[in-house]
Design a protein that fits this description.
five-stranded mixed sheet, disordered N terminus, alpha+beta, globular, four-stranded antiparallel sheet, 7 helices
Length: 500
């Protein structure tokens, strides 16, 4: 297997393995390049705190230069702004001292953060006999090379639910995207995704060829009552901005990649691929598709050694308070995207000697290294899960991967762990729910946004909870609640529990 074959195998986004990302070329004048290169180069082992100090110096030098030559300065072709990642002195990033193994143990209690519960039920417009896309269908995708990939756990291929100001969006690339009101009533279909596909009801598997795909694919992002997503029509791949109130597309552009909506005037495209020689990890661009800013990648380039490579760590990309928040894979800083040319450091994950760099992750021994697994932020806390050693089936079976469940309380500014290490993975970690009339859940089911925690229950998910070993420890009332929920839910329905 040659290098290019390895790279193709290693693409984190399976669809993006076939759909190329933006191919931007930039011409930067020498003076600006010198300032940025001297101010932002990361030496091996350089901490983010040291990098922040360098960054502030670079910003000062660059601003002085810009002020000095303001009348004659010409924006380089292809780029409008110079990026900044400087720390806000009035709001420095919060450091999670994960390297300190004197763990502060405190039970994570939902009643410390939530007091009430409500439920919303969504019914899919497609009959269950034609395909059940509500978290349970396993999509198989066939490529021109006759390879077949199952991507049931890939967050850009499986079912997605997004809450906007006035609507709920739900759907996937197999059955399209649909709009509901906040009470769960079906309103209309945004993208129907009508193309040839085979559904095996007995196995609940949907199979199709990537060449046949028409309609929505990728990640849905929202702001206000607008949503942004990728579409493929007539073998052309575009991005689409959709107005949910007007029930129509308000922009389509022949651009590739998987952009995220930043505001009503600009977008972001995360392009980092650790197995490729990537100069930049992030771009911002406007409605016309013109590049506003680029953010260089400071992660070292992976040295190809042999043929054995593992799936890379995923990035964290989410919205908090309407602001896009990003942590690049293999980077220890969580940034708010404050504007198209400004990344604001919000949190730093200090793994110390437990940190795995890119090369170690792919080719080294991870048995003593900590790896970020899940990061979810609410108004009052951050839920952070990390592992010691790689989380895969072999390590789970051998008991050689350890899971750490932690949270940061924003009010007390304290960092806690639920307990010491455990061998229970997130998709098996059972959460008892003390909120009156609420329902227990597996931690992997939870989606946290601002002041809400949301959990989606399908019929199969409820079956999993009832079969879980912790079911027997529930009160008779909660056991009955789950059993009733299983009976009442239809195959093409989901129930969303919302804690507030």
């Amino acid at each position: 297997m040659d290098k290019q074959q390895i790279i193709r195998k290693m693409k984190a986004g399976l669809l993006n393995r076939k759909f190329s990302t933006f191919n931007f070329q930039f011409s930067i004048i020498a003076v600006i390049f010198l300032v940025v290169a001297c101010g932002r180069s990361r030496r091996p082992g350089l901490s983010d705190q040291e990098l922040f100090a360098q960054q502030e110096m670079a910003d000062t030098l660059r601003q002085a230069l810009m002020d000095f030559d303001a009348e004659t300065y010409i924006v380089p072709p292809g780029i409008k702004y110079t990026e900044s990642r400087a720390v806000d002195p009035a709001n420095p990033p919060v450091v999670f001292d994960i390297a300190n193994r004197n763990l502060h143990i405190k039970k994570f209690d939902l009643s410390d953060y939530y007091t009430q519960v409500r439920y919303v039920k969504l019914k899919h417009p497609i009959p269950a006999a034609e395909g059940n896309s509500l978290f349970d269908t396993k999509p198989w995708i066939s490529f021109e090379s006759h390879e077949r990939w199952i991507i049931s756990n890939h967050n850009q291929a499986t079912f997605q639910i997004k809450f906007t100001n006035d609507y709920i969006i739900a759907g996937d690339m197999s059955f399209g995207v649909h709009c509901y009101d906040k009470e769960g009533r079906f309103l209309y279909t945004i993208e129907s995704n009508e193309f040839p596909k085979d559904f095996d009801a007995s196995k609940n598997v949907m199979e199709f060829a990537v060449s046949d795909l028409q309609g929505f694919y990728g990640r849905i992002t929202t702001i206000g009552n607008h949503c942004l997503y990728n579409i493929k029509e007539n073998n052309k791949r575009m991005i689409c901005l959709y107005d949910l109130t007007q029930e129509k597309r308000i922009m389509t552009k022949f651009l590739e990649g998987n952009p995220l909506i930043l505001d009503n005037l600009s977008f972001v495209n995360y392009v980092y691929e650790p197995v490729e020689e990537t100069e930049n990890f992030l771009f911002t661009f406007d409605l016309k598709g013109d590049t506003l800013c680029r953010y260089p990648n400071y992660n070292p380039v992976l040295e190809i050694r042999g043929n054995r490579y593992n799936s890379p760590l995923s990035t964290n990309i989410y919205y908090y308070g309407g602001r896009l928040t990003i942590r690049q894979a293999f980077n220890d800083t969580v940034y708010r995207v404050a504007s198209p040319d400004r990344l604001l450091p919000a949190y730093v994950l200090n793994f110390g000697s437990y940190r795995a760099d890119v090369q170690t992750f792919f080719t080294g021994n991870l048995s003593e290294k900590f790896l970020p697994l899940s990061w979810k932020e609410s108004d009052r806390y951050i839920l952070f899960i990390y592992t010691q050693n790689r989380d895969n089936r072999n390590n789970r079976n051998a008991g050689s991967v350890k899971f750490f469940y932690s949270y940061y309380d924003k009010q007390s500014r304290q960092f806690y762990h639920f307990s010491e290490e455990t061998n229970i993975p997130e998709d098996e970690y059972f959460i008892e729910n003390p909120i009156p009339d609420a329902t227990p859940f597996l931690l992997s089911y939870a989606d946290i946004e601002n002041n809400q925690l949301r959990v989606c229950y399908s019929k199969k998910r409820v079956e999993t909870l009832i079969a879980h070993k912790e079911f027997a420890s529930l009160s008779p009332e909660q056991q009955q609640k789950l059993q009733t929920l299983h009976t009442d839910l239809e195959d093409n329905e989901i129930l969303i529990m919302i804690l507030e």
